Batch of 2 targets.
Target 1
Amino acid sequence: MNKLEEYLNAHERSEIHPSDIAKILKQLDDAEFSAAIKLVPKDLIGDVALALPDRYFDDIVENLSVDELKHAVSELESDDQVDFMHELEELDENIASEVFDTLDEEDRKEIIKLQTYEEEEAGAYMQLEIFTAYKNEIVHDVIRRFAELRKSKVIENIQNLFIVSSDNRLLYTVGLDDLLVFDFKKTLLENIEQSEDSFEPKKAEDRENIKDVVHYFEEYDLSVMPIVNAYGILLGRITSDDIYDIINEHATEQMYHLAGVDDDAEEYDEIFRAGKKRASWLGINLFTAIFASMVIGLFADTLESMVALAVLMPIVASMGGNAGTQSLTVVVRQLALGGISKGDAMRIIKKEILISLMNGLIFAVVMGIVAAIWFNINMLGVVIALSMVINLLMAGFFGAAIPLFLKKIDIDPAIGSTVILTTVTDVVGFFSFLALATYILL
Amino acid sequence: MNKLEEYLNAHERSEIHPSDIAKILKQLDDAEFSAAIKLVPKDLIGDVALALPDRYFDDIVENLSVDELKHAVSELESDDQVDFMHELEELDENIASEVFDTLDEEDRKEIIKLQTYEEEEAGAYMQLEIFTAYKNEIVHDVIRRFAELRKSKVIENIQNLFIVSSDNRLLYTVGLDDLLVFDFKKTLLENIEQSEDSFEPKKAEDRENIKDVVHYFEEYDLSVMPIVNAYGILLGRITSDDIYDIINEHATEQMYHLAGVDDDAEEYDEIFRAGKKRASWLGINLFTAIFASMVIGLFADTLESMVALAVLMPIVASMGGNAGTQSLTVVVRQLALGGISKGDAMRIIKKEILISLMNGLIFAVVMGIVAAIWFNINMLGVVIALSMVINLLMAGFFGAAIPLFLKKIDIDPAIGSTVILTTVTDVVGFFSFLALATYILL
């Protein structure tokens, strides 16, 4: 008996969770996986597939018929249906369209509706299953209707009741904790008017940037947010579990961009796709590295007459690159988290320059002494110290200024800023060191 | 009339949100800020202080008396009280202890209790305000009690009822959506027994690592989680808004560690503190850069006889560093997100080696041709191409192996891995290039 069988036998149906199944599946080898996947309750298989890393998706699809796939999709909530169909299309368009054609008309409509949104739009992340009522309904009736919807599993994980007008515009959000203390015999509106609390909904528009919506969740400590269109018509909701995923994805995207990696390409197990994307960044880096080398080439005569310069030169560039990366990372991250507001640019640049000046001076002294002793040439120490101060200062300035500038012109400050920065620190490092050496030592 | 006054006049008391006040305060200059802070409703000032970036904290405290501070703290939820007192202690221990002494005994006890937890323990993030009931209570009575607690603002943002035994052990978690469809005339236990749903609580222990707790939230799509001690006694709860903050903090920590920056030191506006921490990483980098330079020093004769080598040498190191950082970043991030399970190490290393080999070959050819033409020495092209392949291969291997190894021996894979990696890619880059040049060209 395999581990999954053990788990399924040990738990009642209501206690079985797709994430637990996914955890067990991840530990199995290929043969066990194929056998185990057939044991997963059919109504959970969609959730299990989405809980597993993307690279398992084809293994799951391989082991299922179109009919089973259709069943898996129909059991999912609308936002998850879209994710599942998206994965399926990436894997095999024919199977995807076969599955799509067998779905209920309502599911098909919902999927098409959600697929119209761009990846950065809030609408792309909402689910359409919501609990709504009209303001003149008696609370007792609303609760009875809720019980029925819940029993039939049409809606799950409900925390709010959305009160809409007859043309479906969102009027109020009532938490279930509010609803529970309402007078059940009165209408919703009567209760709302008698209450001291505010039922003004915190809402977002479907075309708003999802990053702004995440900020609303963070600022207002929300666990659910209704999504409306430009006319205020209620469309769906975004829940806290989506927000966890989005926060993680955005942080991943940012880290990857700083390192010259594409987050979409890395998701799958296709080495060629990830490698190609990485190659494009390495290509840019090669280009800038050659440019920096041409700067070195300007001083070929100097290098020929003093080989110590060739030995020490990478230290200046390396220290500048590292100090600059420190500044860059802090500024990029704080820009993303909203820790830097408009008009803050000068404060940030000043801070980074001060830090880099402080550290530049410290390491200039240390490295100056080391170089002077190592090669027994005092003025070599002075040269490397001076160029270290210059390069770290530039590193601090550009480490702060590059992302601030990119943000200002509405470009993602994480993309490309590293390569611009290291070009600066390499070029300034090599040039200042070799030029000073030419001038002072020769 | 300043902007804050406008906002406060335009909104009813129940609609005023601390985050909105914080947003307005951030736009004011120092003089306006002092005037505005006095307008903030006193019961909101604690929340406003916590909603602002840390560097505003002293401006707020300066403008408040001990009595006002006490009032601000007493209005906060327990987890926020601890945060506020922590900030206050950092700022001024005397004021902090004065404020602490004026607090109610219950508040003092709760703060002391929560302060016993380490930063990485789940207990440090919980709030103690929860809604509990015994299993034999009639639902109707429970709801009446809830209404009273809510009215008196003892508990807020409630989504769950926790059912405990007489000795306070957590038995069941009942969502308010469940409670709403219960038979109000029966006891909680009768309702639970008649339901098909599972009320088995998803809980975490107070001493568990908060990172694991965050993973539970993500995996099980939770918006609230009860926290118990080792004996199962219910202590408090963690809510989704805490999880947003923690996910963001952990991602920040990771990015900062990769760049050699300390997240705690950067939080404040003290340039010296942040600079000192950054200096310690730069110091390590200087040490390793000197080591790499000593490797170059081994080939001083070779460099002297062919200055082209000094010009090209940084390209090999730079490409290795960048390719390695790509691998490193992906592996560190996937380790944190749980995308890499145990026994996955070989798959990851293989993948990274393949990608780096693929890109190594491409850029070896490109750079080989460039170098051969640039300096008109064909064998120089062969030398740089060979060393490029070697260094990118090493970069891929170590970029994957370093974080996997650090994780294996229970060290945070983000800390220090960058500096180890760049040491490898610098040393291998310089050594392979100069050794091959010595052997092939001279």
Target 2
Amino acid sequence: MKLVTAIIRPEKTDEIRQALENYGVQGMTISQASGYGRQRGHTQVYRGAEYTVDLLPKVRLEVLVEESTCDDILDVLISTANTGSAGDGKIWVTNVEEVIRVRTGERGMAAV
Amino acid sequence: MKLVTAIIRPEKTDEIRQALENYGVQGMTISQASGYGRQRGHTQVYRGAEYTVDLLPKVRLEVLVEESTCDDILDVLISTANTGSAGDGKIWVTNVEEVIRVRTGERGMAAV
Amino acid sequence: MKLVTAIIRPEKTDEIRQALENYGVQGMTISQASGYGRQRGHTQVYRGAEYTVDLLPKVRLEVLVEESTCDDILDVLISTANTGSAGDGKIWVTNVEEVIRVRTGERGMAAV
Ligand SMILES: Nc1ncnc2c1ncn2[C@@H]1O[C@H](COP(=O)(O)OP(=O)(O)OP(=O)(O)O)[C@@H](O)[C@H]1O
Ligand SMILES: Nc1ncnc2c1ncn2[C@@H]1O[C@H](COP(=O)(O)OP(=O)(O)OP(=O)(O)O)[C@@H](O)[C@H]1O
Ligand SMILES: Nc1ncnc2c1ncn2[C@@H]1O[C@H](COP(=O)(O)OP(=O)(O)OP(=O)(O)O)[C@@H](O)[C@H]1O
Ligand SMILES: [Mg+2]
Ligand SMILES: [Mg+2]
Ligand SMILES: [Mg+2]
């Protein structure tokens, strides 16, 4: 089992969620975060004033996936999250040793 | 060392926390999340109107545990988080390579 | 690739972030959390009244790092987060199997 964590643009959340559901993803966890990538310290002009790009609001999406579907799910995520502009996000994959569905006590693939 | 992540019903937080403390767990991290499992898209009736079940508020609980106590802690979590109704939650376990207690610099089991 | 997760004092966030940037870290993710460590149940006196230390607000910092810089980054984190008082925080390191920079599709070290 793998855990796919994606830091995405908040305004992309619904579209990404829909694309994952269309693929067949049956659950996900979402939380609020903020962050920045390589453009830190980069100055921008907003309403005439120059300001330093700081922590930008992001959504953190977590999806438990079976190993066999992980690559496909990454493709869905990348193609939906991508706008071509800086700040499109970061995705990382970690190994999960055990998953449990609390109501039924099921473990492993059956629990996702 | 393992990291146990549990997505639980918010109203269960205090009871689960108490049960973990009774078992001997000495620390935990809690954050707000939202999510859904297999009932996505399922319609329900609320105050006479049909609506689609959406992201439900959840609490995300993280507990660093020694490998030797991990199974027991999963049992405590499952038995306390379970109500028998859909939405009881998901638990997953990942491997942790290093843990540090910042104040003392201790590492490994001594740091948890 | 490694993921370094640090639970830190909120008031230390800017200083820690600055120290990481000075070291060369090019991105990070921050979210709000709360928690407690070994002082749970410890009573303190605040404005004359005794109260039980409960969940304290914390910041959760996540940094994807190359394996070769991980130890240095832990040193930066520990030395900046440490005040010598209880509650300085906890840091843990997990293995990351894949990292993707969404805009470019880059993977691995190039994506961090
Ligand atoms: N090294 C990192 N560790 C943890 N989180 C990161 C890291 N880099 C970026 N992030 C998270 O990903 C979010 C989006 O990053 P972003 O897309 O700006 O990455 P980038 O490498 O700067 O790519 P781009 O050039 O397309 O902007 C950040 O707001 C932050 O939350
Ligand atoms: N595949 C998944 N990936 C990440 N998080 C998930 C996943 N499935 C569920 N979750 C998280 O767990 C929470 C609880 O899920 P839930 O208990 O409804 O799972 P379920 O499999 O639908 O079981 P049940 O039939 O008992 O409802 C969700 O709100 C979501 O935050
Ligand atoms: N076992 C644990 N699992 C998950 N998170 C933890 C654990 N222990 C502590 N934390 C997180 O780290 C934060 C800071 O912990 P804290 O620094 O108080 O650890 P401690 O071991 O009690 O050390 P100290 O004696 O210096 O206070 C907590 O608020 C909590 O969010
Ligand atoms: Mg960027
Ligand atoms: Mg469900
Ligand atoms: Mg403490």
